Amino acid sequence: MATPPAENFDALHERVLRFMGAFSSTQFAIDTVIGFYLHRRMPELGSELERQFLRRIRDDQRLPLFTAFAAQANYEADLTNFARIYNRAKQLRDMIGHSLSV
After folding, report:
1. Is the pTM of this model over 0.85?
2. Given 29, 33, 38, 97, which residue has the most CB atoms within 10 angstroms?
């Protein structure tokens, strides 16, 4: 009986790490752009809000905050699918992050 060849998961692990990094970068970008906006619009209060709240924001708070920011800033890009894509990426990130094999 022949032994099956060993699987090479290097490429898979690299893709997983790239995905995790990309999602983290997206979260950082959202937090940063909201922080910049607050600093510009309300220099004193914005700095304090960022220090006390934005640095500790939970995943479930980030999307509604970004949506409100986009409306407040009159952001004109099409965000129709943003929530669906972001939430799906978050689900995948959570599944990968909690996997025993990662």
Report:
1. no
2. 38
